[in-house]
Amino acid sequence: MTIDIRPLTPEFAGEVSGVDLTHPLTSAEVATLEAGMDRFAVLVYHRQAVTDEQQKAFSLNFGALEQIEGGNVTQAKDQRLGAFMADVSNLDVNHKPLARDDRRRMFNLGNQLWHSDSSFRAIPAKYSILSGRITVDNGGRTEFADMRAAYDALDAATKAEIEDLICEHSLLYSRGTLGFTDLSDGERAMFKPVRQRLVRTHPVTGRKSLYLASHIGSIIGWPVPEARAFIRDLTEHATQPQFLYKHVWKQYDMVMWDNRSTMHRVTRFDDTQVRDMRRTTVAGDSVTVEQLAA
Question: Rounded to whole angstroms, how far apart are CA atoms 275 and 138?
Answer without folding.
Answer: 11
